[in-house]
Every structure is written in structure tokens, then in C-alpha cells.
Amino acid sequence: MIVRDRGDSWQVVLQIDHEDLSGAFARAWADKAPRHDSVAIAAARHDDGWAVWERSPVVADDGTPVNFLDVDVRSHLAFYRACIAAVDEQDPYAGLLVSMHGAGIYRQRYGRDTALGLSRAAEEQELVDAFVAEQERAYDERVASIGVAEDDRWRDYELLQLYDRLSLYFCMRDCENGGAEPAELQGYTLELVAPWRVRIDPFPFGESPARFELVRHVLPKHGHAEVLETPAERVAVALERRGD
Fold first, then answer.
1. 24 close to 211: Cβ distance less than 8 angstroms
2. For the chain, first and last CA: distance in Å?
3. What mean pLDDT, rounded, does the chain reach?
4. Is the pTM here over 0.70, yes or no?
5. Which residues contact 221 (CB under 8 A, 6 or more apart)?
6. Extents of the domains making up the chain
7. Strand bridging mode 197-201 / 232-240
8. pLDDT (0 to 100) of residue 67
9. Less Cβ around it within 10 Å: N or C end of the chain?
10. 214 touches 170 (CB < 8 A)
11. Residues of the chain above pLDDT 90, percent
12. Do 36 and 44 contact (CB within 8 A), yes or no?
């Protein structure tokens, strides 16, 4: 789960809700390459493995929900392997992209996000290295089986990262209040212009504003609230073209 400090409360977005938003961005994308349907599947399912962990989300003794970057690495590796296998069964190319995403979490998105990293990865470095090597060893055979060009798979991998990070923008940043500095994200500039309303340039969707929904849980800081027992809120978010 993705946790944001709201001052007097915690905003918690489950990974399965975060990936739903990622998938919605992919489906609304205007410029669709021939394998875009597979990219959209990968975007909508890249965090499926979290579904088991999130049946009982961890809350620390002080009541703080445990953020996704702070989970036990052994659990993370196990459910990512399961996620990759499940997505691969539905769509081999989507499975390849999710495999690249899983390995890329431990490689700073292959150099595209140097800030990315699980806080406890060093505790299980041998297991991490084995997981990354296991995924990367299979790339050549999977690429050949699918028949995708190298440039195309890296383009689609970058798109998957963009959909993931664009969703994380709304999950992790304070989009409820004004004053946030513009953000740069893989060649796109994002500027908060009103609560939950962001101007994105260049504009990548078919119509402006493009409307989406974020599902979140808001937990008070006092007491020891359980994530799943806290009713979910559905927040309307919008991305608009410059000049609108």
C-alpha cells in the first residue's frame, strides 16, 4: 500500500487500486502502438501480487501503515514471481513487461528513476540479485518467442513505467492543496492547478480534461485504525491540456 502523511491522518492507496488507475491511464492514451493492448494489461496488472499481502495490510505498533517501499523483501520477491507468472499466462508480452518492471524495481527502473528502491533490499541482497538475474536470463528467449523488436519492448517498458509513476503522482503527492511545485516525469511536465486537477504537457490523452478515479482510504492518526475496515473514498482526478 502507498501511504501519504496528511498531517492529522494517513492517506492509504492499495496497490491493487493504484494499478487500476495505471491501467485507466494506459487505456485512455491517444498514441497507441500495435502492442498497446498488452501494455495496458501490464499497466492494469503490474501489482497483482500485492493482492494477497493486502488482504491483511501491516500497521506498525504506533499505528503507522507500512508503506510499500518498506515491506519484507522476501515477501515482495515471492508475490512478484507469482504476479509475473499469472500475467504471462494471460498475455506473454504483458508478462515480459511485468517481469522487466519487477526486476527494474531493484535496478532503479533500469536507470530511469534513481530514487526508487525498497528500504530493506540490502538485508536480502543475495535473494534480490538472484531474482533480477532469473528474470533477465529469460528475456532473450521470451523476446524471440513473442517476436518483438528491442526498441519496441524498451519503448513499451518506459510507457509502463510512465503509467505507474503517473498513478503514483496522485497517490504520493498532496494533490488536495495548492502550492505544489511542477514535476517532471519522463518528458512530461505536471502542474497542479486545482485540487485533484493537473495540467500535463505535452498532453497525451484523447480528450481534455481526461477524467479518472482514485480509490483511497483515509485513516486517522489517533488510535489504531485498520486499513480495510476504513471505508474507501473515490476521488475524481483530472488531467488537462495547457491552455484549457
1. no
2. 34
3. 90
4. yes
5. 8, 9, 10, 63
6. 2-240
7. parallel
8. 73
9. C
10. yes
11. 66
12. no
